[in-house]
UniProtKB/TrEMBL annotation:
<dbReference type="InterPro" id="IPR007816">
    <property type="entry name" value="ResB-like_domain"/>
</dbReference>
<feature type="transmembrane region" description="Helical">
    <location>
        <begin position="158"/>
        <end position="176"/>
    </location>
</feature>
<feature type="transmembrane region" description="Helical">
    <location>
        <begin position="66"/>
        <end position="85"/>
    </location>
</feature>
<feature type="transmembrane region" description="Helical">
    <location>
        <begin position="436"/>
        <end position="455"/>
    </location>
</feature>
<dbReference type="GO" id="GO:0016020">
    <property type="term" value="C:membrane"/>
</dbReference>
<dbReference type="GO" id="GO:0017004">
    <property type="term" value="P:cytochrome complex assembly"/>
</dbReference>
<dbReference type="Pfam" id="PF05140">
    <property type="entry name" value="ResB"/>
</dbReference>
<keyword id="KW-0472">Membrane</keyword>
<protein>
    <submittedName>
        <fullName>Cytochrome c biogenesis protein ResB</fullName>
    </submittedName>
</protein>
<feature type="compositionally biased region" description="Acidic residues">
    <location>
        <begin position="502"/>
        <end position="546"/>
    </location>
</feature>
<keyword id="KW-0201">Cytochrome c-type biogenesis</keyword>
<feature type="domain" description="ResB-like">
    <location>
        <begin position="8"/>
        <end position="491"/>
    </location>
</feature>
<feature type="compositionally biased region" description="Low complexity">
    <location>
        <begin position="547"/>
        <end position="564"/>
    </location>
</feature>
<feature type="region of interest" description="Disordered">
    <location>
        <begin position="502"/>
        <end position="570"/>
    </location>
</feature>
<keyword id="KW-0812">Transmembrane</keyword>
<keyword id="KW-1133">Transmembrane helix</keyword>
<dbReference type="InterPro" id="IPR023494">
    <property type="entry name" value="Cyt_c_bgen_Ccs1/CcsB/ResB"/>
</dbReference>
Length: 570
């Protein structure tokens, strides 16, 4: 079980499962997001049948759920089980010498060979010097030079896996020590970052309401601009919240700043994100005696891209109604930033998100709002169970009001005046200490992946052997850990550079020493393609014709070339 868990196959499966498990978090409203509580409750109201099932499956809290945590914890263990032994193995490789040269270098995939009159020890020493100059780890022993290069490939591989570990670690730390809160503010309003003044708050195991960063934030004004012509008419072009804030309780340190989409304001250890925008009609209500019983701006929530917004006005302190009994009043309706001339065929909808022709549409109710029961209510919804809709001429009472217009309510209930409107903005206050760790892990993972893909690990061996009749046989061979033409190029360059210290004999001077490729063409050959060197498969020594004056070459052993490192997959 341990071997299976720490295998690469299981690690990839767990990584795939983690990505699949994150999908519900992007499709279903989450408690952790800004205005999460409101969105979750709205979603539950629209999907009453499956909402209890989703609640039991923790689909509204995916990233803190038991099943999601189990996946990334198993991935933690799998990565740790892979990385630790692999790291120690790589340290052992770095501490050891490059693998010794195989017995028959000319049977390697890429090789070159020629004869020279230079001393064998001098040739080996020159090859050792040239390889080290090219950045190879070279070792000279036993009459041959063994060199290896490209260790950064494995470093990149390990860095990639360690970075995934850091990425998961940052995510886990954020899940345990982060918190988010939501706040909607109308222009001119401010709040202190305390649990009692936040609209909603979601903490974690190590971050509760007592850990909130102390600061004060006020929305001075809000600027919104939309495209007014062309194919993208109505598209948002600017959302800017102009704010004032100070940290702690020292009001003398008041500062001004702006918050834009994807450009949060950082205060202490928290970041304040701009996540929403809308309109808040400013309404005043008078009772039958002409007394102002309500006056204020009420946020209406957008329902479409043109900011057709719905909302309610609750007048809990209306007082005594026309019938002499204590009563409360409620108004529900729409705010249309750009209202059409007629609602026929379309209903109350806005034609443009900007405030070109603002209009407020209201319905009136009287009775018991239920606000005195002590039970919490949604401030954006009107519970009409104990309310009666006012009528006028036998029809439900309703009115379309432009800024500055008033509506005289029927049956002596007073009047409602649409004095104007303000803009509101909603903010997400986020405290996520693991973001920097996750970002660093992501950047290092990309760098490690680049290194593991583009750096080639390769080995080169050089052997210079004195021939019995005089002279020296020089053999070079290269082996890449992956398919690459770079090893052939490096071997050719090394062969050319080595000519300064080991020039080819005169009988081979016309044939440039070049490495043999995969097509089997020898490094040095006559015009008819016959190898200039001795037959490598011969079991006995081969005599060279006397007229050449070239000494005999020892026959190559028929034993296949095997790297000295028997544990190597090569």
């Amino acid at each position: 079980m341990w071997r299976q868990l720490t295998s690469m196959r299981v690690a990839l499966i767990l990584l795939f499962l983690l990505s699949l498990a994150a999908i519900p978090g992007s499709l279903i409203p989450q408690y952790q997001n800004g205005q999460g509580q409101l969105k979750v409750e709205a979603w539950k109201a629209q999907h009453a049948t499956v909402a209890p099932i989703y609640e039991k499956l923790q689909l509204f809290d995916v990233y803190s759920s038991v099943w999601f945590s189990a996946i990334y914890i198993l991935l933690f263990v799998s990565l740790a089980g892979c990385i630790v032994p692999r790291t120690w193995q790589f340290v052992g490789v770095l501490r050891s010498q490059p693998p010794a040269a195989p017995r028959n270098l000319t049977r390697m995939p890429v090789h070159a060979a020629w004869r020279t009159e230079a001393d064998a020890d001098a040739v080996n020493a020159a090859a050792h010097r040239l390889l080290r100059k090219r950045g190879f780890r070279a070792h000279l022993s036993g009459g041959a030079v063994a060199a290896e290069k490209g260790y950064l490939r494995e470093v990149g591989n390990l860095l990639f896996h360690l970075s995934l570990f850091a990425l998961l670690g940052g995510f886990a730390w954020a899940s345990l020590a982060s918190g988010t809160g939501g706040k909607l503010m109308v222009q001119g309003e401010g709040y202190s970052n305390t649990i009692t003044q936040l609209d909603d708050f979601n903490g974690t195991r190590f971050y509760g309401n007592q850990d909130l960063d102390p600061f004060y934030l006020k929305l001075d004004s809000f600027t919104s601009k939309f495209q007014t012509k062309g194919d993208q008419i109505g598209a948002a072009r600017q959302f800017t919240a102009n704010v004032e804030y100070y940290e702690g309780s020292d009001q003398s340190k008041l500062k001004k700043s702006t918050i834009e989409v994807n450009h949060p304001l950082e205060i202490g250890g928290s970041k304040v994100y701009l996540i929403g925008h809308g309109y808040a009609p400013f309404v005043s209500v008078k009772n039958g005696k002409g007394e102002v019983v309500y006056r204020g701006a009420v946020p209406f929530l957008p329902q479409d891209g043109n900011l057709t917004s719905t909302g309610v006005v609750k007048v809990s302190d209306y007082g005594v109604g026309p019938d002499g009994n204590k009563t409360q009043m409620g108004f529900s309706g729409f705010f249309l930033p750009t209202a059409p001339l007629s609602f026929e065929g379309t209903g109350p909808v806005s034609l443009f998100p900007g405030d070109a022709e603002p209009e407020l549409v209201l319905n009136a109710f009287a009775g018991d709002l239920g606000t005195d029961s002590g039970l919490p209510q949604n401030v954006y919804q009107l519970n009409t169970r104990k309310l009666t809709q006012l009528t006028q001429d036998g029809q439900p009472a309703k009115a379309r009001l432009k800024p500055g217009q008033a509506w005289d309510l029927p049956d002596g209930y007073g009047s409602v005046t649409f004095e104007g409107y303000k803009q509101w903005a909603s903010f997400n206050i986020s405290h996520r200490p693991g973001n920097a760790i996750a970002l660093s892990g992501g950047v290092l993972a990309i760098l490690g992946l680049i290194g593991s893909l583009f750096i080639q690990r390769r080995r080169i061996w050089v052997r210079a052997v004195a021939l019995p009749g005089g002279g020296t046989q020089v053999e070079l061979a290269g082996l890449a850990r992956s398919e690459s033409a770079k090893i052939a190029e490096e071997l050719a360059e090394l062969a050319v550079d080595l000519q300064d210290d080991a020039p080819a004999s005169e009988d081979e001077a016309d044939d440039a020493p070049a490495p043999e490729g995969e097509d089997g063409t020898p490094a040095s050959a006559d015009e008819d393609g016959t190898p200039a060197s001795a037959d490598e498969d011969a079991d006995t020594e081969t005599d060279v014709p006397e007229e050449t004056g070239t000494p005999t070459v020892p026959a190559a052993s028929p034993e296949p070339a095997v790297p000295a490192d028997q544990n190597s997959k090569e």
